[in-house]
Specification:
DNA-binding
């Protein structure tokens, strides 16, 4: 198992930067391509998640980055989800300075902005915790995990 996880992780590392080299003149409005189908599936799953009853105490704030950080998330998916890949995500803890800021899984702002070259506007969530403001791609804090 460890060997296949290492191979998968290596494949992700090799595939991510190569996506920049792909032709950027592709039709981004094609909703029948792999990225478009993936984004539609995410929207369907997000709608089911939003339909769940709200959390009670002690939970005071719940962030939904696929709502307020949809633009950079779509840019990420359209850049790096063009062809089928063998990838295994182990856990999806967005963290306050990772996906919660950028909409990109495991994506603290510096890496998303500088290494992945993802762009897009990030809105403020409807209810923002005062100690965990959403600054989007301008966030300077790094995720510690």
């Amino acid at each position: 198992m460890e060997e296949s996880v290492a191979e998968t992780a290596g494949m992700v590392t090799e595939l991510m930067p190569a996506a920049e080299e792909e032709d950027e003149d592709d039709d981004d409005d094609n909703h029948d391509d792999l990225a478009g189908r993936f984004l539609r599936l995410e929207q369907e799953q997000n709608a089911l998640l939003q339909a769940l009853p709200p959390f009670g105490e002690p939970v005071s704030h719940v962030y939904h980055p696929l709502d307020y950080a949809w633009e950079p998330h779509c840019d990420f998916v359209r850049r790096y989800c063009r062809t089928p890949k063998r990838v295994l995500f182990l856990g999806m803890n967005p963290g306050p300075f990772g996906m919660a800021q950028t909409g990109v899984p495991f994506g603290e702002a510096w890496h998303v902005r500088e290494w992945l070259r993802v762009v897009g506007g990030v809105k403020k969530p409807p209810s923002e915790h005062p100690k965990r403001p959403v600054l989007g791609l301008a966030c300077r804090r790094a995720e510690v995990s």
